[in-house]
Design goal:
Blueprint lengths: L2 H8 L1 H6 L25 E7 L6 H15 L3 E7 L2 H14 L5 E4 L2 H9 L11 H4 L11 E2 L2 E2 L2 E7 L1 E5 H6 L9 H13 L13 H26 L5 H15 L18 H6 L5 E4 L3 H8 L7 E4 L13 E11 L5 H10 L2 H10 L16 H11 L3 E4 L1 H4 L2 H15 L5 H14 L1
Parallel strand pairs: 1-2, 1-3, 10-11
Antiparallel strand pairs: 3-10, 4-5, 6-10, 7-8, 7-9
Helix pairs in contact: 9-10, 9-17, 10-18, 17-18
Length: about 425
C-alpha cells in the first residue's frame, strides 16, 4: 500500500463526512474581523487557541513573543479559550462571519462549513514549503478538493489511559482486548473498591468517545462513512453501540458526581485520574499532561491500551478514532498571519512543541524529538492503524456534532434510549 493510500484510508471519513451539509451562514465571500493595527502602527494578528493547561499555556505566549522580537512591526494578540468555550464562541463568530485572523480547527465538517461560506483563506500555495515537509497523514483533515485550508500542529488518537497499580490491585493482569473482557474488568475493579472510570459528564464530548468508538468497532470505518453519506444513523450498528454503552452505564463505573464534572478542573476527570482516584479514562494523547496539570499525575503507573474489539463487529481493533489540531486563517487576513504560521510550524518550532509541550510531531524532521513514552504508545497505535475515524463532533457539521454529544450524554444520564439517540442524530443530519 502506498503512503498516500495509507494516509487516505486512515482519514477515510474526514472529507466524506463533511458532505452531510452545512447550516446557513450570514456571511459569504470573506470576513472583516481580526486584530487590525495598534497605536504604534504595528499589524495586530488575533490568534485564538485552546492551550489552557501547562506546559502549553506558557509556551504559546513565549512563541508569540519570540516572533514579535524578530518581527517588530507585528503584534500577536493571543486569545486562550478552554475547549468547550472555544467551540461555543466559534459557533457564534462563524454565524456572524467575523472570524479571528488565526484560529484553532480540528478540520472535517466544521472547517468545511466555514470554507463553503467563503470565510477561510486557501493556504495551498502560500504554505506549500511547510506542508511538503510534514507527515502526510497530518494534512488530510484540512484538505478539501486538493486544497489546504489549515496548517496542522498536532495529530493523535483516543485510547484508554489506565492506572497499572489499580489494575494489579483488582487482579487484572493484562488490558482487556474485547468489550466482554472490558466489562469484566469493570466488575473486578468495582469488587476491589476501585472507581473504574473517570468521566467529565458535564462537558459531554468525553462521553461521546465511547459511543463513537463502539459505533466504529461495530460498523467499521467504511460503515461510518456510509452513514455519513446517507445522513442516516438508525442502522443496527448505531443501535448496538448505544446498547453496549447502556450496558456499561448500568455497571455504574464512573466517579461520584460525574454528571456535573468538568474535564480539566481541580475536581474533574483529569484530576480524578491524575490523583489515582479512578482506574482509567478514555482520552486523547494530551491526557498525561492534563492529568499532571489538574492533579498530581501517576508517573510510571500510567499505561495505555486501544479501545477493545466488539464481537461480530465489522471494524478492526486497529482502527483508530481521534484527530489532530491545526490553525486556519480567515479570508482576507493580513499576510503576516500566514507568515507567522509558516514560522510557527517550522521544524525547529515543532521540535520545541514536541519536547516542551509534549505534542505529537507533524513535521518529518521533528519526529526524532518524540521521546515521551506515553506519546510513543499513541504514535505506535497510529502507525499500526488500518482505518481512522475523525472526532464525530468535528467530522460533521456543528449541529450534527452537537446532537451526537447531547444525545449520547442523555443516554449516559438515562434520559434517552439507544434508539432515540440514533433517531435524534439522523433527524438533525437530514435537516442540516
Amino acid at each position: 500500500m502506498s503512503a498516500s493510500e495509507f494516509s487516505r484510508r486512515r482519514f477515510l471519513s474526514a472529507a466524506s463526512a463533511a458532505g452531510i451539509g452545512a447550516v446557513a451562514l450570514t456571511a459569504c465571500g470573506g470576513s472583516d474581523s481580526g486584530g487590525g493595527t495598534d497605536s504604534s502602527g504595528r499589524t495586530v494578528i488575533e490568534w485564538w487557541h485552546i492551550q489552557t493547561t501547562a506546559p502549553s499555556k506558557t509556551i504559546w505566549p513565549e512563541r508569540a513573543k519570540a516572533y514579535e522580537a524578530a518581527h517588530p512591526k507585528v503584534r500577536i494578540k493571543l486569545v486562550a479559550l478552554e475547549n468547550e468555550a472555544f467551540k461555543s464562541k466559534m459557533t457564534a463568530v462563524t454565524s456572524s462571519g467575523k472570524l479571528p485572523d488565526i484560529y484553532h480547527t480540528w478540520g472535517g465538517g466544521v472547517l468545511k462549513q466555514q470554507i463553503d461560506a467563503g470565510l477561510v483563506e486557501d493556504l495551498t500555495e502560500s504554505i506549500k514549503p511547510v506542508t511538503d515537509a510534514m507527515v502526510p497523514a497530518s494534512l488530510e483533515a484540512y484538505k478539501f478538493d486538493d486544497k489546504m485550508y489549515a496548517v496542522p500542529i498536532d495529530i493523535g488518537a483516543v485510547g484508554f489511559w489506565y492506572n497499572k497499580a489499580l489494575f494489579k490491585k483488582a487482579g487484572i493482569s493484562t488490558p482487556p482486548a474485547t468489550w466482554a473482557d472490558y466489562l469484566d474488568a469493570i466488575k473486578k475493579l468495582k469488587s476491589a473498591g476501585i472507581t473504574p472510570i473517570a468521566l467529565a459528564g458535564k462537558e459531554k464530548w468525553p462521553g461521546m468517545y465511547y459511543w463513537a468508538y463502539l459505533a466504529t468497532r461495530i460498523a467499521g470505518v467504511e460503515g461510518m462513512q456510509k452513514a455519513a453519506d446517507a445522513k442516516d444513523f438508525t442502522g443496527d450498528a448505531f443501535i448496538k453501540a448505544g446498547e453496549h454503552l447502556k450496558e456499561l452505564v448500568a455497571l455504574e463505573p464512573f466517579q461520584k458526581g460525574f454528571l456535573g464534572a468538568a474535564y480539566s478542573s481541580p475536581t474533574g476527570e483529569a484530576a480524578t485520574m491524575g490523583n489515582g482516584k479512578a482506574a482509567m479514562e478514555l482520552m486523547g494523547q494530551w491526557a498525561p499532561v492534563t492529568q499532571a496539570d489538574a492533579g498530581k499525575g501517576i508517573g510510571k503507573d500510567l499505561g495505555f491500551f486501544a479501545f477493545p474489539e466488539v464481537a461480530g463487529g465489522k471494524g478492526s481493533g486497529t482502527d483508530a478514532f481521534g484527530g489532530g489540531g491545526g490553525y486556519a486563517v480567515r479570508k482576507g487576513a493580513p499576510k503576516e498571519a500566514v507568515d507567522f504560521l509558516k514560522w510557527f510550524m517550522s521544524a525547529e518550532n515543532d521540535r520545541l512543541l514536541v519536547e516542551k509541550a509534549q505534542m505529537m510531531p507533524v513535521v518529518k524532521d521533528a519526529t526524532s524529538a518524540l521521546t515521551d513514552p506515553n506519546l510513543k504508545m499513541v504514535s505506535d497505535m497510529l502507525g499500526k492503524a488500518t482505518g481512522f475515524q475523525l472526532y464525530l463532533d468535528q467530522a460533521y457539521p456543528p449541529a450534527v456534532g452537537q446532537e451526537i454529544n447531547d444525545s449520547v450524554a442523555a443516554l449516559i444520564a438515562g434520559a434517552k434510549s439507544p434508539e432515540q439517540v440514533a433517531r435524534s442524530i439522523t433527524q438533525v443530519a437530514k435537516s442540516a
